[in-house]
Structure formats: C-alpha cells, structure tokens
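Appendix B. Raw example, untouched.
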Amino acid sequence: MASRRDSRSSASLRQVLSVDYGLIRRCRRNDGCRVDCAHDRTDDSRLPWDTDDYGGWGGHDFHDTEPGVERPPVVFVHGNQRDACDWEPHAEFFLNRSYTGDELWAISFGDGSPTHAEMADQLDEFVAQVCDHTGAEAVSVVGHSLGVTGLRYWLAREACYDRVDSFVGIAGANHGSELFALAVRAGLTDGTYEVCHFLQDGTAEESPLAALNEDETPGAVDYYTIRGVEDPLFMQRPDSPALDGATNVALETDHDGARESLDSLELVYEWVADESPYNVRTFV
C-alpha cells in the first residue's frame, strides 16, 4: 500500500510540475513578464539612476507625485520568470492611500531566473540607490515566491538587517518543496529550474536554504508571511512559506493569489504602513 501511495504522490507532483513549467514557459517567452510589457528587463528609464544589471520602476517622477518620504520606502521583489510588472496593482493601492512615489519601488532582476547570488548583488545596489535617492535609512521589503528566499539570502549575506524595517514574504519556499527535488531528478537543473539546487533539503553544510533556516527571523526586523492554502507548489508541505518568529497568515487562494488578492494587498499595506488601509486619514 505504501508503494501505491508513493506512486500516486509522484504522479501528482509530476502533474503540478508540468503545469508550473507550462506557466513559466509562457512568461519566459515574454522575457519573464506575465503581462508582456514593452520594457526590457534591464531598462532603467523608469528609475532615477542608471543601471547595467537590472531594471524596475519607482520614484516621484515615475509615479507623478511630489518628492519626499515620510516612512521607509517599500521595495517589491518578484519571483521566478516574473518582473516588476507584478507589483503595479500594489503601487496603485498604496498611492491611493497617501504613499508618495519616492516610497514605492520594484526591481526587475536582469535574468528572469536569477541565482540567489545574482539577486543579492542586484538587491544590494538597488536598496542602496533607493536610500541614496530618498534619504531614507531603511526600507521595507515585500517579496513573492523566489524573491522571498532571494531577500533572505541578501539579508544574511550582507548582514544588513539594520537597512530593513519590515519584511513580507509571500508564497516563498522557505522550507523547500518536493517539486524541487522532483525537478532535479527529472533533469531540470538549468535556466528556469537552476534555483531548485538552492531550495532542496539538506544539512546546513550542504544546503544554503538549511543554513538560512538556522535563524529564520534574525535582526530587529518585523517579519510577516502570507501563503495560499491552495498553492500547488506546497501541496505536500503547506507550511513551507511560514517563518518561525514571524506573523504568518494563510489565505484561501493559490500561488499568485497570495500576492495579488485584495486580502493580501490589505495585509501588506497594514504591515508596512503600520495602519489600516481603510483609515480615512490615509486617503487622498
């Protein structure tokens, strides 16, 4: 009986992996953009500084607001085969609730499937530029999917916890997924699925993810996570996105819904702004 259960489980994982791979391939045809926007990944025309390795958007000129910040700017970080376009609804939601353009930023990594080292390099420069441009001493960070462990790796590698006020991780593989091991066994180890090596289980000496999880919420940072209970990526490990020491919330939604649903938008705003999104004083 155990063998039959294992067989059914493997079949389900392969079906989910097949669907996941199909979605990623469609985004990859658009250079990693789900909405097929007109901007290359390293296009810096929507940023107030020049870049070589990444793109994105942000700042008062881009958002057409007055300059200046009154709270830590928010840096949004996308997932595998996505880009800054994923966060445009968040910008609109925040702008309608008293945020300025200088308080809203999103990075597009130079590669649609960046390594964690590449994410850390680009995030380190991006956050430094945001702080230099705005005069802020710290930012709040909001990541989705691969961007969550990318942010955690950057924080740990640079030991820059004093530069982050709040951390929101949405549908991140903080404790892995059986899909990553299946991808490796299936030979999907390059390009889009190269990240599976980083996110596999193992000892702290063998697994970068396990090393991160020796202290899941380090520093004087407020940590929050959101996960979808219908997320196929975590069908066998539903609590993977949660972090010990964080405020962890589960929503009745899937992988993308954990980022784009109204419930998620409201939570993200409340956590980084430290006020209700429906406080009448926040409306323009």
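End of appendix B.
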